[in-house]
Amino acid sequence: MSANFIINKNMKLKPLSDYVVVKAITEEITKGGIVLPDTVDKERPEKGEVLAIGEGKLLDNGQRAAVSVKVGDKVMFKKYSPDEIKVDGEEYLVIKESDIIAVIIEKRLIN
């Protein structure tokens, strides 16, 4: 099942195939609890939150392979794989599912 991302009341963004729309997470917290804002490190992001997913990759048999991430997941991806897009002044990343390398599970959620 795909998910649309609503940008504003006049526009929706729906990724195709196995593409995923992500909002970069650029703020870091050090082990000492200090928050480093995105202005400290200007390298390309490697983490983000999934905002929308496509319907999945079309297989040779005509069926679709389900996307393995869901809206709201925090993910790590290859540094140079995302395509950057800007809509209404906001920057988003569009990534192929195969370039996502991990889902981040927060420590407090692990039993």
What's the gist of this structure?
By secondary structure, the chain is mainly β. Helices cover 0% and strands 44% of the residues.
Written overview of the protein:
This protein has 111 residues and is mainly beta. The chain has a single domain (5-106), classed as 10 Kd Chaperonin, Protein Cpn10, Chain O (Roll). It has strands at 5-8, 11-13, 19-24, 28-29, 35-36, 47-53, 57-58, 64-65, 74-77, 83-87, 90-96, 100-104. A six-stranded antiparallel beta sheet has the order 10-11-3-6-9-12, with no helix packed on it. The chain has a two-stranded antiparallel sheet with strand order 1-2. The protein has a two-stranded antiparallel ribbon with strand order 4-5. The protein is globular and about 50 Å long. The relative contact order is 0.25.
CATH C-level category: Mainly Beta
Poorly predicted segments:
none
Number of helical runs?
A: 0
Shape: globular
Keywords:
two-stranded antiparallel ribbon, globular, 0% helix, six-stranded antiparallel sheet, mainly beta, 10 Kd Chaperonin, Protein Cpn10, Chain O, 111 residues
Question: Which helices and strands occur, and which strands form pairs?
Answer:
Blueprint: E1 5-8, E2 11-13, E3 19-24, E4 28-29, E5 35-36, E6 47-53, E7 57-58, E8 64-65, E9 74-77, E10 83-87, E11 90-96, E12 100-104
Antiparallel strand pairs: 1-2, 3-6, 3-11, 4-5, 6-9, 7-8, 9-12, 10-11
